[in-house]
Structures are given as C-alpha cells and as structure tokens.
Amino acid sequence: MPEPVNQLSASSDAQAPLGTDGVTANVATNGLPTSDVPAGALMQTVDGMVASDGTVISDGTVALDPETGLPVDGAITGDGSLVPDVISNLPVFDLVDRAGVVGWVLAALALIGLLIFFYKLVGFIRCGIFTDGFVKDVERHLGDGNEQQAVQVLVRRRHPAARIGLFGMSLSVGDAETRESASDIIAARARKEIDGLNGGLRIMSAIAVLSPLLGLLGTVMGMIEAFQKMEGAGSRIDPSVLSGGIWLALLTTAIGLVVAIPATAFHMWMQGVIGRAAAVMEDVCTMVVNRGELARKTALHGATIAELRQAAE
Length: 313
Prior knowledge:
Keywords: Cell membrane, Cell projection, Cilium, Flagellum, Membrane, Protein transport, Transmembrane, Transmembrane helix, Transport. Pfam families: MotA_ExbB. Belongs to the exbB/tolQ family. This is Flagellar motor protein MotA. Helix content is about 60%, strand content about 5%. It has two domains: about 1-85, no CATH class; about 90-313, no CATH class. With about 325 residues, the protein is mostly helical. Strand 4 and strand 5 (about 55) form a beta hairpin. The chain is built from eleven helices and five strands. Helix 4 runs antiparallel to helix 5. It starts with 14 loop residues before the first strand and ends with a helix.
C-alpha cells in the first residue's frame, strides 16, 4: 500500500518551511529531523509523524506550538488521516480556561442563569401556578350565590389568583362605587403578586443580552492579539499562529451563544407562565368584584355564567 503523500514535503530530501521561527527544517529519509532543526521548530516527518524540538511524537498525537500552546493545524497521522478534532476532545473547563477571562465571566453568567431558572421553577411549583382549573369552580359557586363554597375552594389553593380572590372576598362590593374602589384595591394587590413572580427575570434577560456581546468582545480581543503576534513575527510569519489565534478568539463567541440561547428560552418561557397567571388573577378579580351581579344573572337565567358562555358560542 503506498505511503501517504506528506503535505509539507514532497520528497525525503526536500526543504519545508515548517519552523515556527520561519527557519527551514531539513527532513531525513527515515522521517526524523536532522541536526540543523532549530530549537522550538515544529515539523512533520516523511512518515506522517510529528516532531517537536527533535522529539518524535507518537502517531495521532497533536503537536503544540511552543509559542502559542495551540495545536498545529492540518497535522497528518501516519495513516494519512487528520488528527481528531482538538476542541471536541477538550473538557468543558479546559475550553473555558482557553477562552481566558471572558470565558470565565460567561461561565459565571451561565451558572447564575441556571440558579435563577431552578429557583423560579421551584417557586412556580410551590405556589401552584401551573394549576388554575379551580377558577371554574369559583365561578360556578359565585354564580350560584354560594360564597362560602367559593372561599373554601380558594383556601385550598396556593395559586396567586387564589390569594387575590380571598382578599377580594373580604371586601364589600355592595354598590357600584364600592365595587370600583374594591377593584382598584384588588388590582394593586395583584400587581404586587405579579412583581413577586417577576423577581429574577431582569437578571435572566440581562444574561441573555450580554452573553453574546461579551463573547464578541472576547473574539475581537483575541483577533487583535493574533494580529499583534503576526506583526511581531515580521517576515517569519507562521500561519499556525494566526489560525490558532482565530479559533481561540472565536471560542468566546461560541461560549457566549451557548449561554445566551438557553437564557433567552428560559426567560421567554417564564414570561409566558407569569402572563398566564396574571390573566387568571384578572379573571378572579373580576368575578370577586362583581360576585353580586354574577349571582343575580345566574338566578335570572337559571344557568351559570359558564353555561351561558357555552350557549353563546
């Protein structure tokens, strides 16, 4: 089976500009570097193995640039195949560490976002915000004029709308003026409940907005650093320095997007849950304030308001 063609040297005695400092490295016929290889040079031998500082690295191992610490791009293994993707083989913490200060800031934002999400999720479950079927029972009891039964239904529930309903049931709603005053009082109480549910959402929103911007900032800083290294190298430019700096710079943008996308999804979902809870509170507030009128209409028509709505549809 023919040997794979080396991308960096066409023959065993060819000169290949493989040194990181721009000095040409000679390759012997046996694939090992000759004595004139400069210290710190990275080169590829004829048999596809990678040598660094005159030491042959085993097949499949990625050689690192002594200046940047980054893998040599396009390294070929002995069987002619590309070495495994370095990024996918690195642990998450190593990737974050390679991204520098911006990477750790984004990791901290991700942790804060997760804590807020689980805190809000536990709070939603504890307050029974996902169970709002009791509203129909309250409407039926108030329509029948049985306020005591409606109160018992509200007492058994932990939903914010149940607390609003109990508060409204304690207010007098005899005439139109009293009902208007009670409606304002209940609405103010409902706004406090909604403000409590919204706690933490602004932080989640800020994380969703700032994460990609921080990632972009890290990318710009990384690109500036890569081009500064190229400028310092002068005519002895090693493409691996630039390419290594670019992928390292783009890493912060990737981390920023990984943080921002779930944060945005969590924020939108929580807003939807709170919006539904606010609508339920509004319905309960309306029923409680107009409970006398609701009972009168039900007695007049001999049917509950829910039944009248179904008939109208």
